[in-house]
Amino acid sequence: MGTNAAPQAAPGAAPRIEYRSVTKRFGSAGGPTVTAVEGVTLSIRDGEVVSLIGPSGCGKSTLLGMGSGLYLPTQGEVLVDGERVDGPNDHVAFMLQKDLLLPWRTIRENVEYGLEIKGMAAAERRPLALDLLGRFHLGGFENHYPRQLSGGMRQRAAMARTLAVDPSVLLMDEPFSALDAQTKMVLQQDLATMLAREGRTALLITHDLAESIILSDRVLVMSPRPGRIIEEIPIDLPDRENPMVRRRKPGVAVYVERLMELLRIGETLETLETA
Length: 275
Ligand code: ADP
Ligand code: MG
Description:
The protein is of the alpha/beta class. It has two domains: about 1-90 and about 170-275, 3-Layer(aba) Sandwich (Rossmann fold), CATH 3.40.50; about 100-165, no CATH class. About 35% of the residues lie in helices and about 20% in strands. The chain is built from nine helices and ten strands. The protein has helices at about 60-70, 105-115, 120-135, 150-165, 180-200, 210-215, 245, 250-260, 265-275; strands at about 15-25, 35-45, 50-55, 75-80, 85, 90-95, 170-175, 200-205, 220, 230-235. The strands form two sheets. It has a six-stranded mixed beta sheet, with helices on both faces. A hairpin with a 2-residue loop joins strand 4 and strand 5. Helix 2 runs parallel beside helix 4, helix 3 packs across helix 4 (about 150-165) and helix 4 (about 150-165) runs parallel beside helix 5. The longest helix is centred in the last third of the chain and has 18 residues, at about 180-200. The radius of gyration is 19 Å and the shape is globular. Bound molecules: adenosine-5'-diphosphate and magnesium ion. Adenosine-5'-diphosphate binds near residues 26, 54, 58 and 62. Adenosine-5'-diphosphate binds near residues 26, 34 and 57.
Protein backbone atom coordinates (compact mmCIF):
# COMPACT_ATOMS: atom_id res chain seq x y z
CA MET A 1 0.00 0.00 0.00
CA GLY A 2 1.05 3.54 0.52
CA THR A 3 -0.64 5.00 -2.52
CA ASN A 4 -4.34 5.20 -3.16
CA ALA A 5 -4.24 4.14 -6.78
CA ALA A 6 -6.28 1.00 -7.37
CA PRO A 7 -4.03 -1.95 -8.12
CA GLN A 8 -3.76 -2.53 -11.85
CA ALA A 9 -5.27 -5.71 -13.22
CA ALA A 10 -3.42 -7.46 -16.02
CA PRO A 11 -5.27 -7.41 -19.36
CA GLY A 12 -7.60 -10.38 -19.59
CA ALA A 13 -7.43 -10.88 -15.83
CA ALA A 14 -10.40 -12.17 -13.86
CA PRO A 15 -13.22 -9.68 -13.29
CA ARG A 16 -12.90 -7.57 -10.15
CA ILE A 17 -16.14 -8.95 -8.77
CA GLU A 18 -18.24 -11.79 -10.05
CA TYR A 19 -21.50 -13.38 -8.90
CA ARG A 20 -22.07 -16.90 -10.19
CA SER A 21 -25.66 -18.18 -10.04
CA VAL A 22 -26.17 -16.63 -6.62
CA THR A 23 -29.31 -17.37 -4.64
CA LYS A 24 -29.96 -16.16 -1.11
CA ARG A 25 -32.74 -17.40 1.14
CA PHE A 26 -33.44 -16.13 4.62
CA GLY A 27 -35.14 -18.43 7.06
CA SER A 28 -36.86 -17.30 10.22
CA ALA A 29 -37.43 -19.62 13.18
CA GLY A 30 -40.71 -21.39 12.46
CA GLY A 31 -41.65 -18.78 9.83
CA PRO A 32 -41.54 -18.97 6.06
CA THR A 33 -38.32 -18.81 4.10
CA VAL A 34 -37.81 -15.68 2.00
CA THR A 35 -35.93 -15.98 -1.26
CA ALA A 36 -34.34 -12.56 -1.46
CA VAL A 37 -32.13 -13.11 -4.53
CA GLU A 38 -32.37 -15.85 -7.14
CA GLY A 39 -29.88 -17.05 -9.72
CA VAL A 40 -27.95 -13.81 -10.11
CA THR A 41 -24.93 -13.92 -12.37
CA LEU A 42 -22.98 -10.75 -13.00
CA SER A 43 -19.45 -9.67 -13.55
CA ILE A 44 -17.76 -6.28 -13.22
CA ARG A 45 -14.52 -5.47 -15.00
CA ASP A 46 -11.63 -3.51 -13.58
CA GLY A 47 -12.45 0.21 -13.68
CA GLU A 48 -16.11 -0.32 -14.48
CA VAL A 49 -18.95 1.41 -12.60
CA VAL A 50 -22.23 -0.51 -12.52
CA SER A 51 -25.53 0.58 -10.98
CA LEU A 52 -28.20 -1.72 -9.67
CA ILE A 53 -31.83 -0.63 -9.59
CA GLY A 54 -35.01 -2.46 -8.70
CA PRO A 55 -38.14 -2.17 -6.60
CA SER A 56 -37.87 -1.86 -2.84
CA GLY A 57 -37.35 -5.23 -1.14
CA CYS A 58 -36.13 -6.97 -4.31
CA GLY A 59 -32.83 -8.02 -2.78
CA LYS A 60 -30.42 -5.24 -3.79
CA SER A 61 -28.89 -4.79 -0.34
CA THR A 62 -28.71 -8.55 0.11
CA LEU A 63 -26.78 -8.80 -3.15
CA LEU A 64 -24.31 -6.17 -2.00
CA GLY A 65 -24.08 -7.81 1.43
CA MET A 66 -22.88 -10.99 -0.25
CA GLY A 67 -20.22 -9.01 -2.08
CA SER A 68 -18.81 -7.76 1.19
CA GLY A 69 -19.04 -11.17 2.89
CA LEU A 70 -21.67 -9.98 5.35
CA TYR A 71 -23.95 -12.76 4.10
CA LEU A 72 -22.98 -15.99 2.36
CA PRO A 73 -25.00 -17.19 -0.64
CA THR A 74 -27.37 -20.11 -0.11
CA GLN A 75 -26.33 -21.28 -3.58
CA GLY A 76 -23.68 -20.10 -5.99
CA GLU A 77 -20.63 -18.03 -5.16
CA VAL A 78 -19.19 -14.54 -5.20
CA LEU A 79 -15.59 -13.93 -6.24
CA VAL A 80 -13.48 -10.82 -5.74
CA ASP A 81 -10.27 -10.76 -7.77
CA GLY A 82 -10.88 -14.41 -8.55
CA GLU A 83 -11.08 -15.41 -4.89
CA ARG A 84 -14.22 -16.73 -3.31
CA VAL A 85 -15.72 -14.38 -0.70
CA ASP A 86 -16.27 -16.42 2.44
CA GLY A 87 -16.61 -13.69 5.06
CA PRO A 88 -15.88 -10.02 5.73
CA ASN A 89 -12.62 -8.97 4.10
CA ASP A 90 -10.78 -5.81 3.18
CA HIS A 91 -10.81 -6.31 -0.60
CA VAL A 92 -14.18 -4.64 -0.72
CA ALA A 93 -15.30 -1.45 0.99
CA PHE A 94 -18.85 -0.65 1.85
CA MET A 95 -20.65 2.66 1.88
CA LEU A 96 -24.22 3.05 3.06
CA GLN A 97 -26.90 5.71 3.24
CA LYS A 98 -25.99 6.08 6.89
CA ASP A 99 -22.38 7.21 7.14
CA LEU A 100 -21.17 4.59 9.67
CA LEU A 101 -18.64 7.04 11.09
CA LEU A 102 -17.69 6.37 14.70
CA PRO A 103 -19.08 9.31 16.72
CA TRP A 104 -16.28 9.26 19.29
CA ARG A 105 -13.54 9.59 16.70
CA THR A 106 -12.58 12.70 14.76
CA ILE A 107 -12.98 12.68 11.00
CA ARG A 108 -9.28 11.98 10.57
CA GLU A 109 -9.38 9.15 13.09
CA ASN A 110 -12.38 7.72 11.29
CA VAL A 111 -10.55 7.76 7.96
CA GLU A 112 -7.54 6.11 9.63
CA TYR A 113 -9.62 3.42 11.31
CA GLY A 114 -9.34 0.74 8.59
CA LEU A 115 -5.61 1.32 8.25
CA GLU A 116 -5.18 1.12 12.02
CA ILE A 117 -6.90 -2.27 11.99
CA LYS A 118 -4.53 -3.39 9.24
CA GLY A 119 -1.65 -2.43 11.56
CA MET A 120 -0.33 0.59 9.66
CA ALA A 121 1.78 2.89 11.86
CA ALA A 122 0.32 6.27 12.87
CA ALA A 123 3.09 8.18 11.10
CA GLU A 124 2.23 6.44 7.86
CA ARG A 125 -1.56 6.53 8.01
CA ARG A 126 -1.91 10.14 9.15
CA PRO A 127 -0.66 11.83 5.95
CA LEU A 128 -2.73 9.40 3.92
CA ALA A 129 -5.88 10.35 5.81
CA LEU A 130 -5.16 14.06 5.52
CA ASP A 131 -4.56 13.73 1.79
CA LEU A 132 -7.87 11.90 1.33
CA LEU A 133 -9.75 14.46 3.41
CA GLY A 134 -8.24 17.21 1.27
CA ARG A 135 -9.38 15.48 -1.89
CA PHE A 136 -12.93 15.37 -0.57
CA HIS A 137 -12.87 19.07 0.37
CA LEU A 138 -12.62 18.43 4.10
CA GLY A 139 -9.20 20.01 4.66
CA GLY A 140 -9.34 21.95 7.94
CA PHE A 141 -12.10 19.75 9.35
CA GLU A 142 -9.89 16.80 10.28
CA ASN A 143 -10.25 17.39 14.02
CA HIS A 144 -14.02 17.76 13.91
CA TYR A 145 -16.30 15.02 15.16
CA PRO A 146 -19.03 13.64 12.87
CA ARG A 147 -21.77 15.45 14.82
CA GLN A 148 -20.09 18.77 14.01
CA LEU A 149 -20.47 18.24 10.26
CA SER A 150 -23.39 18.49 7.84
CA GLY A 151 -24.88 15.37 6.27
CA GLY A 152 -23.04 16.03 3.01
CA MET A 153 -19.69 16.49 4.77
CA ARG A 154 -20.22 13.28 6.71
CA GLN A 155 -20.87 11.36 3.50
CA ARG A 156 -17.71 12.86 1.99
CA ALA A 157 -15.79 11.73 5.07
CA ALA A 158 -17.39 8.31 4.61
CA MET A 159 -16.13 8.22 1.01
CA ALA A 160 -12.62 9.08 2.23
CA ARG A 161 -12.87 6.36 4.88
CA THR A 162 -14.02 3.83 2.27
CA LEU A 163 -11.10 4.64 -0.03
CA ALA A 164 -8.44 4.67 2.68
CA VAL A 165 -8.15 0.88 2.70
CA ASP A 166 -7.58 0.89 -1.08
CA PRO A 167 -10.26 -1.68 -1.86
CA SER A 168 -10.49 -3.66 -5.11
CA VAL A 169 -14.20 -2.96 -5.29
CA LEU A 170 -16.41 -0.23 -3.83
CA LEU A 171 -19.90 -1.34 -2.89
CA MET A 172 -22.31 1.53 -2.30
CA ASP A 173 -25.86 1.10 -1.05
CA GLU A 174 -27.88 4.25 -1.76
CA PRO A 175 -25.06 6.46 -0.48
CA PHE A 176 -26.74 9.75 -1.35
CA SER A 177 -30.39 8.99 -0.72
CA ALA A 178 -30.57 10.85 2.59
CA LEU A 179 -29.10 14.08 1.16
CA ASP A 180 -30.90 17.11 -0.22
CA ALA A 181 -30.88 17.52 -4.01
CA GLN A 182 -28.11 20.10 -4.22
CA THR A 183 -25.77 18.36 -1.81
CA LYS A 184 -26.38 15.16 -3.70
CA MET A 185 -25.28 16.72 -6.99
CA VAL A 186 -22.03 17.92 -5.43
CA LEU A 187 -21.31 14.49 -3.99
CA GLN A 188 -22.15 12.74 -7.25
CA GLN A 189 -19.58 14.99 -8.88
CA ASP A 190 -16.94 14.20 -6.23
CA LEU A 191 -17.61 10.49 -6.50
CA ALA A 192 -17.60 10.37 -10.30
CA THR A 193 -14.38 12.36 -10.58
CA MET A 194 -12.65 10.10 -8.07
CA LEU A 195 -13.90 6.88 -9.69
CA ALA A 196 -12.72 7.98 -13.13
CA ARG A 197 -9.40 9.49 -12.03
CA GLU A 198 -8.41 6.43 -10.02
CA GLY A 199 -9.95 3.86 -12.33
CA ARG A 200 -11.97 2.40 -9.47
CA THR A 201 -14.41 -0.48 -9.79
CA ALA A 202 -17.80 0.06 -8.19
CA LEU A 203 -21.24 -1.44 -7.74
CA LEU A 204 -23.78 1.19 -6.76
CA ILE A 205 -27.35 0.71 -5.61
CA THR A 206 -29.65 3.65 -6.16
CA HIS A 207 -33.36 4.25 -6.49
CA ASP A 208 -32.65 7.44 -8.44
CA LEU A 209 -32.93 6.43 -12.11
CA ALA A 210 -31.11 9.50 -13.42
CA GLU A 211 -28.30 8.93 -10.92
CA SER A 212 -27.84 5.36 -12.14
CA ILE A 213 -27.47 6.65 -15.70
CA ILE A 214 -25.19 9.60 -15.12
CA LEU A 215 -22.77 7.76 -12.80
CA SER A 216 -22.31 4.43 -14.51
CA ASP A 217 -21.15 2.45 -17.52
CA ARG A 218 -23.95 -0.07 -17.16
CA VAL A 219 -27.26 -0.32 -15.31
CA LEU A 220 -28.62 -3.65 -14.10
CA VAL A 221 -32.36 -3.85 -13.51
CA MET A 222 -33.78 -6.30 -10.98
CA SER A 223 -37.25 -7.85 -10.82
CA PRO A 224 -39.42 -7.74 -7.71
CA ARG A 225 -38.49 -10.38 -5.10
CA PRO A 226 -37.08 -12.89 -5.60
CA GLY A 227 -34.63 -10.51 -7.22
CA ARG A 228 -33.23 -11.58 -10.56
CA ILE A 229 -31.48 -9.43 -13.11
CA ILE A 230 -34.00 -8.83 -15.86
CA GLU A 231 -32.09 -6.37 -18.00
CA GLU A 232 -28.65 -4.98 -18.52
CA ILE A 233 -28.38 -1.56 -20.12
CA PRO A 234 -25.00 -0.27 -21.29
CA ILE A 235 -24.92 3.52 -20.99
CA ASP A 236 -23.55 4.86 -24.22
CA LEU A 237 -22.90 8.44 -23.13
CA PRO A 238 -19.63 10.37 -22.77
CA ASP A 239 -18.40 12.23 -19.67
CA ARG A 240 -18.84 9.62 -16.97
CA GLU A 241 -16.30 11.58 -14.93
CA ASN A 242 -18.44 14.67 -15.13
CA PRO A 243 -22.07 14.09 -14.09
CA MET A 244 -22.94 17.80 -14.32
CA VAL A 245 -22.17 17.58 -18.04
CA ARG A 246 -23.61 14.12 -18.62
CA ARG A 247 -26.86 15.07 -16.87
CA ARG A 248 -27.64 17.52 -19.68
CA LYS A 249 -27.28 15.03 -22.54
CA PRO A 250 -30.60 14.39 -24.31
CA GLY A 251 -29.89 10.64 -24.18
CA VAL A 252 -30.40 10.62 -20.39
CA ALA A 253 -34.17 11.11 -20.73
CA VAL A 254 -34.37 8.20 -23.18
CA TYR A 255 -32.60 5.91 -20.71
CA VAL A 256 -34.85 7.10 -17.85
CA GLU A 257 -37.89 6.27 -19.98
CA ARG A 258 -36.52 2.77 -20.67
CA LEU A 259 -35.84 2.15 -16.96
CA MET A 260 -39.34 3.34 -16.03
CA GLU A 261 -40.79 0.89 -18.53
CA LEU A 262 -38.73 -1.97 -17.13
CA LEU A 263 -39.70 -1.12 -13.57
CA ARG A 264 -43.33 -0.71 -14.70
CA ILE A 265 -43.48 2.67 -12.99
CA GLY A 266 -46.12 3.89 -15.48
CA GLU A 267 -48.39 0.97 -14.59
CA THR A 268 -48.05 1.72 -10.89
CA LEU A 269 -49.14 5.28 -11.59
CA GLU A 270 -52.19 4.11 -13.55
CA THR A 271 -53.17 1.84 -10.66
CA LEU A 272 -52.91 4.78 -8.28
CA GLU A 273 -54.94 7.03 -10.52
CA THR A 274 -57.79 4.54 -10.92
CA ALA A 275 -57.82 3.53 -7.27
P1 ADP B 1 -33.70 -4.02 -1.11
O1 ADP B 1 -32.35 -3.57 -0.68
O2 ADP B 1 -33.79 -4.30 -2.58
O3 ADP B 1 -34.79 -3.08 -0.70
P2 ADP B 1 -33.20 -6.23 0.72
O4 ADP B 1 -32.03 -6.91 0.12
O5 ADP B 1 -32.95 -5.36 1.88
O6 ADP B 1 -34.01 -5.43 -0.43
O7 ADP B 1 -34.27 -7.32 1.18
C1 ADP B 1 -34.75 -8.34 0.31
C2 ADP B 1 -35.66 -9.27 1.08
O8 ADP B 1 -34.90 -10.04 1.99
C3 ADP B 1 -36.71 -8.56 1.92
O9 ADP B 1 -37.90 -9.33 1.86
C4 ADP B 1 -36.15 -8.57 3.30
O10 ADP B 1 -37.17 -8.58 4.26
C5 ADP B 1 -35.36 -9.87 3.32
N1 ADP B 1 -34.19 -9.78 4.20
C6 ADP B 1 -33.13 -8.96 4.03
N2 ADP B 1 -32.21 -9.15 5.01
C7 ADP B 1 -32.71 -10.11 5.82
C8 ADP B 1 -32.25 -10.78 7.00
N3 ADP B 1 -31.06 -10.47 7.54
N4 ADP B 1 -33.05 -11.72 7.57
C9 ADP B 1 -34.23 -12.06 7.02
N5 ADP B 1 -34.74 -11.47 5.91
C10 ADP B 1 -33.99 -10.53 5.30
MG1 MG C 1 -31.74 -1.86 0.34
